Predict the 3D structure of the following.
Amino acid sequence: MSDTTEETAVDAVEEVSSDGLGPAVFASVGSVALALYFYYVRGDKQRGQFVGLWPVTILGLASYFKLEEIREALSEGDD
């Protein structure tokens, strides 16, 4: 990669908000807690397992949207 490409990539990543995946992480932690509650406290193992699948989906979607923001920032930098 050339220096200009690296600089463009770094500028694009810095341009995207630096909050990371904040709300998605909190939602994922909350769903893990809810899954543990259903599984162990209420004894509803099937519901606990179902809710336990949510964090992966939440973080996957958040990562996808963050990558789209980076891609848009990179395409704006090429113009």
The chain is about 85% helix and 0% strand. The chain has one domain: 3-78. The helical segments are 3-15, 22-41, 45-52, 54-78. Residues 3-78 form one domain.
